[in-house]
Amino acid sequence: MEGSKGNRWPRIIVHADMDAFFAAVEELDDPTLRGRPLLIGGQGPRSVVATASYAARRFGVGSAMSMEVARQRCPQALVIPPRFSRYQEISRQVMEVFESFTPIVEPLSLDEAFLDMSAARALFGSPNELGRRIKARVFEATGGLKVSVGVAPTKFAAKVASDHRKPDGLMVVHPQAIRAFLDPLPLRRLWGVGPVTEEKLRKLGLRTIGDVAAASADLLESSVGRQGPHLIRLAQGDDPRAVVPQREARSVGSEETLDVDVIGPAAIAPHLLHAADEVAARLRKNALVARGVRVKLKTSSFQIVSRQTTLHRATDNAGAIHAAALALLPSFPLDEPIRLVGVTAFELGEDSPPIQGELFATRPDPRSHDLDRTMDRVRSRFGKAAIRRASDLE
Ligand code: TTP
Ligand code: MG
Fold it and tell me: How many CB atoms lie within 10 A of CB 335?
């Protein structure tokens, strides 16, 4: 069971951003550089600073500044030319760590990504504990790099939060604290507000995100057009944007919001079968097999709970996935009506012919495998609704 704190989180979104990324990698690879003022960038007269170590930032230098100006402000800084392939290599390690927490990872740049942890919350403890674990795993995997982490119910709040306590930061913004967190921040922290929009908003007498949240939609629309209502919603902490994974699929899922809520395992089971059918069909279509099976349920009060299990053998069989999903049901709190049922297969691998002697273990029931294939063929010729299991029908 989740703690009562976790229950008020509609979604758990993490934004993670490495500290002084290029400079930190240079310090990692050459410990004699640690703690020294570093400017990463070219030496030429027109070059700009890609990033500065935190020791150099104290002198008022930073990204995108001309190298010339930066060197004037911080003459003792060491200038280091960037090594992009090394940064890419470390970036891959970091993204892999993120993907070990959730398949829903949206990288924004080499050193930064959103993670949607909503479905995996039961695995990693409280949002604070989750943030600590991500930081520790990144540190471990890279051999000593630090990442700042923001955890919040929306992308916008998570992004602002990760920056709030940099470097080596961890900040959790609880759903009920979003407004208090955002309100005092300056206009420029609002997504989509550049210098031009900022000036327009200032002319309206607005100074902070809280001012925007309290402004009238008509007033804002007359000044900044259709962006106005959007900015108000964002300032009010209303940001429904989803984390959109941009990597190759690491899992295959199917979920369905039910026409009517159901209660109890017997009522949930047919929906699990329906989802397992879909998942298995997509696995087969992509010549994949899965070892992990995850069930996600959303209660009528919109709480999401998920549980997962690992199969002895990888499968693309609907029956095997359904059986694993059913076996997870007793570990759910099932006393509330359920409005959404989902099944996800993960730990994917390529489908390969069964090894001799393992035939029956790999394909526990050859007839059920044939049934799956037949259903695929009928569906692909006549559409998805053409055939359903008898047990799928009410
Ligand atoms: P950032 O995350 O913006 O900066 P950072 O990681 O150096 O520092 P911090 O997050 O702690 O504030 O960018 C990540 C890397 O991208 C940065 O190390 C260098 C590169 N970069 C540029 O090359 N040019 C730029 O203008 C910016 C902003 C970043
Ligand atoms: Mg960074």
Answer: 8
Least Cα distance to 145 among 86, 74, 101 occurs for: 86
Q: How far apart are CA 139 and CA 90, in angstroms?
A: 11
If you take atom 4 of ligand 1, which residue's CA is the nearest one?
A: 20
- CA distance linking residue 297 with residue 341, whole number of Å: 5
Q: Which tens digit of pLDDT belongs to each residue from 337-394?
A: 999 999 999 988 876 544 433 344 444 455 666 677 776 766 665 555 555 555 544 3
CA dist., res. 13 & res. 154, Å (int): 6
Query: Ligand 1: distance of its center to the CA of 22 in Å?
Result: 7
**C-alpha–C-alpha distance, residues 315 and 96, integer Å:** 24
84-101 and 127-142 are packed helices; what angle lies between their axes, rounded to 10 degrees? 140
For 262-271, how does the pLDDT look when each residue is reduced to its tens digit (9 = 90+)? 999 999 999 9
> How close is the Cα of 150 to the center of ligand 2, in Å?
13
The values of phi and psi at residue 105, to 5°, are -120, 125
- Ligand 1 atom 7: the closest Cα is on which residue? 20
358 included as an active-site residue: no
Eight-state DSSP code of residue 274: H
Which whole-number Å values give the CA distances from 248 to 104, 105, 218, 286, in the listed order?
11, 11, 43, 12
Quickly count: other Cβ atoms within 10 Å of residue 214's Cβ. Answer: 13
Residue located nearest, by CA, to atom 28 of ligand 1:
63
In angstroms, the CA 83 to CA 40 distance is 9
- Tokens matching residue 250: 């690491």
Ranking 32-36, 231-235, 252-256 by mean pLDDT, the lowest is: 252-256
**Catalytic residue, candidates 26, 27, 112, 255:** 112
Q: What is the pLDDT of residue 120?
A: 82
CB-based pocket (< 6 A), ligand 1: 17-22, 50-51, 63-64, 111-112, 166-167
